[in-house]
Each structure stands twice: as structure tokens, then as C-alpha cells.
Write a structure and sequence with these properties.
Blueprint: H1 8-20, H2 25-35, H3 37-59, H4 63-69, H5 75-91, H6 101-141, E1 146-148, E2 155-157, H7 175-190, E3 198-202, H8 209-222, E4 230-234, H9 235-240, E5 253-257, H10 264-273, E6 282-288, H11 289-298, E7 308-311, H12 317-330, E8 334-335, H13 337-346, H14 355-376, E9 382-383
Parallel strand pairs: 3-6, 3-7, 4-5, 5-6, 8-9
Antiparallel strand pairs: 1-2
Helix pairs in contact: 1-5, 2-3, 12-14
């Protein structure tokens, strides 16, 4: 790589030639030495002084300071030399970095968001460890598990999943998520006049719309909502959409994907529109945990409208396989270990905990099973290993 100012002396030499004629620096020195031996001695002393000065300057000041200390050059000469050095700097790509006020502000916002996310992550990890320890202790003691009612703040028994909450049963073997599901369902039953809205919290890259759909279907089976209609929309689409399109949803459920990106004003509109005296539907927010946490931190006025939080961000491989077995059973099919081993291998090609993609993959396997059995003239609903290829 070419070093900065590597051609500085060549450029300065050319400048001297232009200023003093064709004589170069060496020729000028020779003529001066020929004039008198005493002048030669003085010149030699000057050269020694210059060498000493140069050695000291290399540790501190730059080339330009050294040039300014040399005798025999006018202020005008120095200005021209500085111009040459500036020109060389431009050619070599050495430019002063300038950061605009807007860029500094953006960097500040970014740093603040990174800090907030790190704090939330540390807090979640601490809470997760505490929760895991409590769950392990309860499992050993076989005591009735007590939880906090999100409406009243009272300690209540965790309870069981109602039989009609069919689509939520597959989450009951996932220790990190089952409690949240049970708390939400039993509290909604106990407090029918309170908001029934749900927030499903996932990790970055998760697909959690399927969880929202499972709540919506279970709500209908249990009579919590009056209609089996489910509308799904992404936050950015909702921001641009007129709510008159949701009139047909009356009595059902609205699922908002990537909900951390919905505008505050639009969500306020949706909450008003979903009220019992208007279109009477349940709002289910799904999205990345940090985005949703940040949204609620900045919009505390609507926190009371979303009491129930379903945390699925900790579902890992084992939990996903529990989900797979529960989903296959929920659909009315049977499968042996070899089928689930193949599904487990499929997980390696997905984001860890992406429920939407994994359930979609199981749906593909079930579809292959249906086609194979239909061609054979039976409907045993038994998934074979080749169906999972």
C-alpha cells in the first residue's frame, strides 16, 4: 500500500525547481560550498542541526513543522509547500472525517437501543433462571403450583387447561410456555368482563402466528368469542389500512404479525374498534420480544389492554418436538419414532423455535400421507417415514 505523503519530497523538489529555476537542491549546495570554505563549514553545521532537529521532530511534530524551521524560506514559500502537501493528501485519500449532527443523533439512538436490549436480555435471563428453579422445585415437591393472577395480582392455583381448549393442548408439555397459556386461559374465564387481548412474544426470526391462531380457535371452541372468523395482517399493512375492512370480523379474532412495528395511533384505533360495543373482536399481537417490549415501554397508555403475555422465546429443540407430537395427535394422525427423527432433522434447517415454519413442515408431511393413503384406497392416517422425506 502506498504510504501517505510518500511522494511529498518529489513534489516539494518540483516546487523548488519552479521557484528557483532549473537548479536542484544539491546543485545549490555545491555552489555555496565552492564560494568559501567557511561558508561550507557553516552549511555543514546547519545540516547537522537540521538532522538533529529532524530526528526529534519525527517523534512529535510532522513534516510540515520541520519545513517551517528551515532557514532561507519565506512565509510565501511555506504556504505553497502546505498547498502541495494538502494536494498530496487529497490524492492519497487522506481527508478529514466529518460527521453530521443527524448521523451523531442516529448513532446515539442506536447505542441507546443496544443498551436497552442488553438490559432486557439480562433481566429475562435472570427471570428465566428463577422460573426454571421454581418449576424444578415444584416438580420435586408435587405441590399445587401457585401463580399470580394478572388481573388482580393475587396468588391463585395454576389450574388445568379446559377440555375445549383443544388447539392449545400441544403446548402443555413445553415447560417454558405451558404456564403462560394456563394463566391466560383460566384468568380470561374468571374475569370475562376484562380485556381478552393476547401478546405472543417470540425471538428474532420466529414465526408465531400459528400460536395466535391456536388461541383464536380455542377461544371460539370455549365460547369466549362468538365467531370463528380470524383475520391476519402484518403491522405495516395495518398502518395503511382503513378499519372499515374489519367490519366483517365482528365477534372473531384479529392477529397482527410483527406487531412491534404497528403505529401507536393505529393500535389505539384498533382497540376502540374491537370494543364490545363496537365490533367486539379479540386482538392478538405476535412478534419479536424486544420490539414488542420497546413498543409497550414507549406506549404505556395501552398496556392495560394487553394483560396476557405468552412467552415462546425459550422454546428449543426438545420443546419443538413436544409440539410436533402434540400437533400430529391434534390433527388425528399417528406416527412412530422414525418419523419424528426426520422432523427433528428438519429443525436444523430452520431458525430455532420458528413455530410457523415447523408446523408448516408437519402440514406438508400430513398432506403426503393423505395423498399416499388416498391412492391406496384407505384412510388410516398413519404417517410413514417416506412421507417425511
Amino acid at each position: 500500500m502506498k504510504k501517505p505523503f510518500s511522494n511529498a519530497y518529489d513534489a516539494i523538489k518540483k516546487l523548488f525547481q519552479k521557484m528557483f529555476g532549473k537548479k536542484n537542491a544539491d546543485e545549490s549546495v555545491s555552489e555555496e560550498q565552492a564560494e568559501s570554505s567557511e561558508e561550507s563549514k557553516k552549511e555543514s553545521e546547519k545540516e547537522s542541526e537540521k538532522e538533529s532537529e529532524k530526528e526529534s521532530k519525527e517523534e512529535g511534530a510532522g513534516d510540515t513543522s520541520e519545513q517551517q524551521s528551515e532557514p532561507g524560506k519565506s512565509q510565501e514559500d511555506m504556504v505553497k509547500i502546505e498547498d502541495v502537501l494538502a494536494h498530496i493528501a487529497d490524492e492519497e485519500g487522506i481527508k478529514e472525517e466529518k460527521v453530521s449532527k443527524g448521523e451523531l443523533e442516529e448513532q446515539k439512538k442506536y447505542d441507546e437501543e443496544v443498551r436497552k436490549r442488553a438490559e432486557r436480555k439480562a433481566k429475562r435471563e435472570a427471570e428465566d433462571k428463577k422460573k426454571d428453579a421454581e418449576e424444578a422445585a415444584n416438580a420435586r415437591d408435587e405441590k399445587i403450583k401457585m401463580v399470580t393472577d394478572p388481573v388482580t395480582g393475587e396468588e391463585v392455583a395454576l389450574g388445568q387447561l379446559p377440555e375445549k381448549a383443544v388447539f392449545l393442548k400441544k403446548y402443555m408439555r413445553i415447560q417454558t410456555t405451558s404456564d403462560d397459556v394456563l394463566v391466560a386461559i383460566n384468568s380470561i374465564i374468571k374475569h370475562p368482563d376484562m380485556s381478552k387481548n393476547i401478546v405472543v412474544l417470540g425471538r428474532n426470526g420466529f414465526g408465531t402466528v400459528k400460536v395466535g391462531e391456536d388461541f383464536a380457535r380455542s377461544f371460539y371452541e370455549m365460547g369466549i368469542v362468538k365467531s370463528d372468523k380470524i383475520a391476519k395482517t402484518k403491522a405495516k399493512q395495518l398502518n395503511k389500512m382503513g378499519l372499515e375492512k374489519l367490519k366483517a370480523l365482528k365477534g372473531g379474532c384479529l392477529i397482527i404479525e410483527n406487531a412491534g412495528l404497528v403505529s401507536f395511533s393505529k393500535l389505539v384505533e384498533v382497540i376502540k374498534d374491537s370494543a364490545p360495543e363496537n365490533n367486539d373482536y379479540v386482538v392478538i399481537l405476535t412478534g419479536e420480544i424486544d420490539s414488542l417490549s420497546n413498543f409497550f415501554d414507549e406506549n404505556e397508555d395501552i398496556v392495560d389492554q394487553f394483560i396476557y403475555l405468552i412467552d415462546v422465546h425459550k422454546i428449543k429443540e426438545r420443546g419443538m418436538m413436544h409440539l410436533a407430537r402434540g400437533y400430529v395427535k391434534e390433527r388425528g394422525y399417528k406416527a412412530d419414532k422414525s418419523v419424528f427423527d426426520k422432523l427433528k432433522a428438519n429443525l436444523k434447517a430452520m431458525e430455532e423455535g420458528n413455530i410457523d415454519r415447523f408446523v408448516g413442515r408437519i402440514d406438508e408431511v400430513i398432506e403426503k400421507c393423505d395423498k399416499r393413503e388416498e391412492a391406496a384406497g384407505n384412510a388410516a392416517k398413519i404417517i410413514l417415514p417416506e412421507d417425511a422425506n
